[in-house]
Each structure stands twice: as structure tokens, then as C-alpha cells.
Amino acid sequence: GEQGKRIQEIVSRAQDHDEFAVFRTWHAYLEEHLVFPFAATVVEYQRGPVRQGARVKVLDITFLDETYGTIVAVKQKDGVYELPLCDLKVTDADVEIRQLVEDYAVWFANR
What is the CATH number of domain 2-110? Predict the structure, then answer.
């Protein structure tokens, strides 16, 4: 489908086929195309103080993790925390941003 095509277009830019090369490609693409801040809901279980179901404001990309992929800074009432972008669902942003984060999360889950 359309989503598969969009994902393939990004993945095919990777220099190598190893997972981390594809992570880096996604990370660079996200850095280039995401516009901050935007609102999101945490959809996956988290160990830290930010709970599943929490509404957060996504502030910026902070780094690329070998296990969890692109990590973002999120603001919750009481502070700023770092979470994997793949654990978030965009609730308030342009359709392009919503779609990009969703495409990334789908790729991440199925990689």
C-alpha cells in the first residue's frame, strides 16, 4: 500500500542493509522533516515516570539509540524526559508529521 511505498522510499536510501545503517537513515530523515513541538500520546509501556497513555509535548530529537532507535525529548507537566519516538502516537500536528511518525513506528515494529 501507500504506507509501504513511503517506508520503502526511506529505507532504500540506506548505504548498507544492516539494521543500524537503516536506523541512521531514518534518524536523518526524521531530523530533516519533523517540526517541533507537537503533541503525542505514549502508546507503549515505559519503565520511567512517563506512563502509557500520558499526553506529552515532543520537543526535539535527542539522539539515536542502537536498540530503541530515535529518542526524543518530551515534556510532561513535571519535567522533560527522553522516550523512543516509536512509542508515541502523534495527536496534534500536521498530517505529514503524523504520517511520518506512524510510518516510522510501523517500520520499527516490523523491521
Answer: 2.30.30.530
pTM of the model: 0.95
- Enter the C-alpha cell of residue 61: 530529537
Contact 91, 55 (CB under 8 A): yes
Distance CA 69, CA 74 (A): 15
Contacts of 111 (CB under 8 A, 6+ apart): 19, 22
Domain boundaries, given as residue ranges, for the chain: 2-110
> pLDDT (tens digit, 9 = 90+) per residue, 73-99?
999 998 999 999 999 999 999 999 999
Distance CA 45, CA 52 (A): 5
Instruction: Give the 3-state secondary structure of residue 104.
Output: helix
